[in-house]
Amino acid sequence: MGKHNEGQDLKSSLMNHLWYTNCKDMYSATPRDKYTATVFAVRDFIAKKWIETQQAYYEVDAKRVYYLSLEFLLGRLLHNYILNLRLDAEFRAASDVLAIPYDELIELEWDAGLGNGGLGRLAACFLDSMASMSYPGYGYGIRYEYGIFFQKIVDGHQIETPDNWLRYGNAWEFPRPEVLYMVHFHGKVNSIMDRNKKLRMEWADTDSVMAMAYDYPILGYDNNTVNTLRLWSAKSTRDFDFQYFNSGDYVRAVEDKSTSESISKVLYPNDQSLAGKELRLKQQYFFVSATLKDILRRYCKEHKKFNAFPKKVAIQLNDTHPAIAIPELMRLLVDDNDLEWDTAWEVTTKTFSYTNHTILPEALETWSEEIMWHLLPRHLQIIREIDRRFQIQVSFRFPDDPQRKHRLAILSRNGRDVVNMARLAIVGSHTVNGVSELHSDIIKDVVFKDFHEMWPKKFQNVTNGVTPRRWILEANPGLSQLIMEAIGDQWLKNLELLHDLEPFATDTQFQQRFLDIKYQNKIKLRDFVKKTFNLSLDPEIMLDCQVKRFHEYKRQLLNILHAITLYNRLITGQVDPDMVPRTILFAGKSAPGYFICKLIIKLIHSVAAIIHAHPLAREKLQLIFVPNYSVTEAQTIIPAAELSEQVSTAGYEASGTGNMKFALNGALTIGTLDGANIEIREEVGPENFFLFGLQAEEIAALRATYNPMQYLDNNEELTLIMHQLSTGYFSPENKDLFQPIVNVFLGEGDKYFVLADYKDYIQQQETVSETYKDKQLWAKMAILNVARCGKFSSDRAIQTYAEKIWDVQSITARKGGSFDIT
Q: Where does the record place a coiled coil (predicted)?
């Protein structure tokens, strides 16, 4: 069929969906109707591939990967899927039939509120790579009705408002009311004798909620694979209590329904209260229980016994949130399917693998035994038995070290009885991996040292990666086109081919085109922040970006200290007249209960206002904060950035993926030797990376004797900044407003070593400015960053998981239902 006919067919499809799916004509159709019609037209291309992919998996009885995560930050799907179908030009041409520009159409999609930060963005990249590499993969999570929150800035303060992302529905999701599972809570555990005179445990008198499935297609790039993301929504087991209804108490009549369905209402409830903690554990068990029942249903279609289960099922725990899956699978195998404990345990441990994402003590999840017993009494019994048997193993393995049992215990009793979910995940999995080389070394040598000594072969490293389809092809079409003109388009399937760009790094014509594309991306960002937030951004000056979740270890404070230093130098004439002007851009959310981080956001706005008010400072320096950071904002900010701030305290960031996205889009990095920064620097070359700061082992050695005052006393600029913060220079309306930040440095001991790294950071920022003056040198360094970051593809990460952890094969569905196995 010719291009003309294809275009006509696509236009007909768009109009048919407008008329017959939305029941609108061009007189009554809203822009959102036109967007929805376009989504349905894209779904038409996906549906047959999706069905054929799933049929292929069944036909070959493929081993499947199940990726369990409480977060999936998918971003907008419409343009992404059109690119993956390689129909961008066709849809752009056909959209004129709807009388709306294509670029306006794709802007109508709301980001799915299914995640908070890096954990969810990584999970989305991994789903993309599994589909693009044709691995039989499924994502499982929760269909949150509300996202974490919508961040507004009022008088410089973060204000949280509901993120009602499903307000207009979601044309990408497929409700599956027939896929419904009962999930139980509370109750009691009885010992009963079954008909075979065997003693077994019965979980009885429970409260129940239904889990209903909603499916999202996960479309591979330029292939016929469509995998599935299945999200669970909580539904009440009954509509309401007729006893209350008939007596006229209508509120009580629907109370149970409202309480049950609150489980999937909002992402990550505030867990400062007991009720919040219980709801979060409910969320974790809710999605895990429904998921495992769904996995067992699928497995039992083809298999009557469980001895082949680990050969057909690989379950990846994305951090500790889904770790309750380990005792839940044991319960399903032992209680519901009559397996002996040892057999069930062998099946379980051969099925699960666990990715650790953090070394922060507060993020290594624990639950009090009291809450666990109240909510999941049978699971606490199973965890106790797992721990008892594990302690026997420890005693045999280390007979002369009785203290090791305490250090390894899943159930610890240091003043309160708690369940250590990371330890449970390690004991119940066949493989544990970190997400960068440094992080994996730290969990082996420090955080889980005793576990590593017990099972050295259990621990591996899989450095994170990002999908080039979304983070270069979609986010940065200008750069993508430049790369394709130079080396073709196969790099989108094999990012290592970016190495072929290296000779172009010294090509002056290529350099100029590269810089022109960066400038156009800055103009696009300028227009976006002006239109969306009424912020002003000058595209003519250096763009210095730190965009990530706010946490003290990520050290947004260090970046602010630099901004204040530049301001103080500018207003006192202590700068070179040809100082490189720069815009310092922040974006990110603070957890609602994180007082200091919310105060840091206020400080950014207060410093920005002072800079803007001073005529000498505002000529050379701009500080802006882009609210409500999301995948969509990231896709606009990252391609425009020229300097990437990756300044976390060495030894604290597990990996990071933002650092990879910035480097792949031609931003140079100023950073510490932390997380994947180390590997980025190794790949791009030390001369193309602005390194500063103490290393992880130096921080560990310094921690016991660290005195931040010695760094303050020896640095006049730092002393001035502390004085300004203490005396209300940046908050004349409330002179004590930022005293808590001073206390973080001086009263609480500066536990993230901001003051220790300040001098080195400022000096390296001066090197950045000097380098930026030489446009050719800067372009060369930036192009080499792009060319040498091919390692940081999520395809490479997924291939490592597939070969070394999951033991799965690629199943390539072809048109007509045939397939290839590799």
A: none
**Domain 63-75+111-366+422-463+803-821, second-level architecture:** 3-Layer(aba) Sandwich (3.40)
Token pair listed for 355: 């990715």
Query: How far apart, in Å, do the first and last CA atoms of the chain sit?
Result: 32
Sheet holding 64-68, edge to edge: 174-185, 207-219, 226-235, 137-142, 64-68, 313-318, 352-355, 431-434, 459-461
- Per the annotation, the verdict on 331 as an active-site residue is no
* Dihedral angle over CA of 638, 642, 648, 652, nearest 10: 50
What is the C-alpha to C-alpha distance for residues 669 and 646, in angstroms, rounded to an integer?
A: 7
> Which one is catalytic: 11, 293, 357, 469?
357
Instruction: Give yes or no for a contact between 790 and 500, defined as CB atoms under 8 angstroms apart.
Output: no
**Distance, CA of 483 to CA of 787 (rounded, Å):** 10
Tokens found for residue 33: 């109707």
311 has catalytic annotation: no
Q: Exactly one of 63, 230, 404, 548 is catalytic; name it.
A: 548
φ, ψ of residue 410 in degrees (nearest 5): -70, -40
Tell how strand 199-204 and strand 188-193 pair up.
Answer: antiparallel
The whole-angstrom separation of Cα 124 and Cα 120 is: 6
Active site residue 661: yes
User: Catalytic: 549?
Assistant: yes
Q: What is the pLDDT of residues 696-711, one digit of tens each?
A: 999 999 999 999 999 9
In angstroms, rounded to a whole number, what is the distance separating the alpha carbons of residues 812 and 57?
Answer: 9
**CATH code 3.40.50.2000 region(s) in the chain:** 63-75+111-366+422-463+803-821, 538-785
**Is 431:769 a contact under the CB 8 Å cutoff?**
no
Query: What is the DSSP annotation of 680-744?
Result: HHHHH-GGGSEE-S--HHHHHHHGGG--HHHHHHT-HHHHHHHHHHHHTTT-TTSTTTTHHHHHH
Strand partners of residue 215: 174, 230
Residue (of 682, 637, 644) closest to 660 by Cα position:
644
Considering the chain, what is the average pLDDT of its residues? 93
Answer yes or no: 48 catalytic: no
Number of continuous H segments (helices) and E segments (strands) in the chain: 35, 24
Residue 178's H or E segment, with its range, is: strand 174-185
Please name which of 592, 49, 540, 116 lies closest in space to residue 319, comparing C-alpha atoms.
Answer: 116
**Type of residue found at 134:** S
pLDDT digit string (tens) for 460-496?
Answer: 999 999 999 999 999 999 999 999 999 999 999 999 9
DSSP structure class, residue 104: H
Rounded to 5 degrees, what angle do the CA atoms 366, 367, 370 make? 150
Q: CB of 607 within 8 A of CB of 730?
A: yes
82-109 per-position pLDDT tens digit? 999 999 999 999 999 999 999 999 999 9
- Crossing angle for the helix pair 118-132 and 794-801, nearest 10 degrees? 70
- Kindly name the residue from 554, 589, 602, 780 that is annotated as catalytic: 554
The CB-based long-range contact list for 276-281 (8 Å cut-off, 24+ gap) reads 277/367, 277/371, 278/371, 278/374, 278/375, 281/324, 281/367, 281/371, 281/372, 281/375, 281/376
Tell me the pTM. Answer: 0.95
Show the 3-state SS of 323-343.
CCHHHHHHHHHHHHCCCCHHH
The catalytic position among 661, 681, 788, 796 is 661
What is the total residue count of the chain?
822
Q: Which of 355, 463, 565, 657 is catalytic?
A: 657
Q: What is the pLDDT of residue 578?
A: 87
CB 796, CB 465: distance < 8 Å = yes
Domain 538-785 has CATH 2.40.37.10: no
Q: Which of 17, 143, 423, 549 is catalytic?
A: 549
User: Do 433 and 459 form a contact (C-beta atoms < 8 A)?
Assistant: yes
